[in-house]
Structures are given as C-alpha cells and as structure tokens.
Amino acid sequence: MYTVIGTAKSRAARVLWMLEELGVPFEHVAASPRSEGVVEFNPAGKIPVLIEDGTPITDSTAIIQYLADKHGQFTHPAGTLDRARQDSLTQFLLDEFDAALWMAARHSFILPEELRQSAIKDSLKWEFERSQKTLMHRMGEGPFLMGEVMTVPDIILTHCGNWALTARFPIVEHKLSTYLDRMRERPAFKRAMAR
C-alpha cells in the first residue's frame, strides 16, 4: 500500500488525485511542509512524499509519473513519440505555469518578509497569461490536453489552474477555463480535494 504525506492544499493534491483516478488503496498523512513526519523522509522538508515499501519518493511530478508508469494508466509508453509529446507538455507546464505560481507564493508568504518583492507578481502574471496563449496552440482536440486520453500533464495543469485562481492569477483563455471546469467535475478529483 502507498502512503502519501502532505496536505491536499499543496502539490500533494496531484498525488492524491492520481491515486484516486487509479483506484488503488493508500493512506494519507496530511502533514505540513517541514514538519517532523516530513523531514524524516525528505530532509528538505518539502511535500509531497510517497512511501512505497519503506522507500520515499519526492517531487509531485516524479511521483505521479512513477504511478502512471507502474499502473500503465494516464501515460503513454516510454520511448514513443506520444510519450515525448507528453513529457514536453509536462516540462512546459512546470516551467511556465508551476514556476510562476511558485515564485509568486514565495514572494507572498514563504520567504522572510524582508526578502519578499511584491512587485515581481505583476511580471509573473504577465508571463502566466502569455503562457496560456502558447498552451492553446499545444492542446489537442478532445477533452484532454493530448486529445482523447487523460495523461500526467492534465493533473499538473488542473492543479496549477486551481492554484492560479487561489493566487488571483487570471485565466484569460476561455478554452482553458472550460477545460478546468470539466476536469474539476471528475469524481476522483473531488475525492482528492475533499481530503
């Protein structure tokens, strides 16, 4: 059985959602970053942590891709062109969406107050809006990013979309808003967010 450490209001939500989609049993420990139960498995104190057979795996993207590969769902096979496209989308979302939101969070409440630069948020919002326009050219036809099959990037994008709304980063692309609304209606997503 898997154990997921991390609150559902963090990137641990990605892992919880993947496990709910897979329909596999898991235990959830809703620990905060840098808490004792986290540092024991990840010296950096970051969440989420997935523990399988006593082995901790860190970083939400590494975890959800591992789970997708292991269970043969929500991913394309390694070594295929579809997997290359999937990995490219994953990296794009991490570089353009997750990074902007994380930088804004750092300058809002994570860094010591004397190091925060609130003015940086304007440029991050500008970049976030521009990245949405780029993403529209990369989205496939169908209900998911790559078309008819839900993959790892869908979990990352939906999580980032929710994070953006919480952080007051505007979603300016109608197609993206519609996509996010549809993804949030998935029963597994709702179960994960209720934790």
From TrEMBL:
All copies of domain GST N-terminal, residue ranges: 1-75
InterPro entries tied to this protein: Glutathione-S-Trfase_C-like, Glutathione-S-Trfase_C_sf, Glutathione_S-Trfase, Glutathione_S-Trfase_N, Thioredoxin-like_sf
Protein name (Swiss-Prot/TrEMBL): Glutathione S-transferase family protein
Limits of the GST C-terminal domain: 79-195
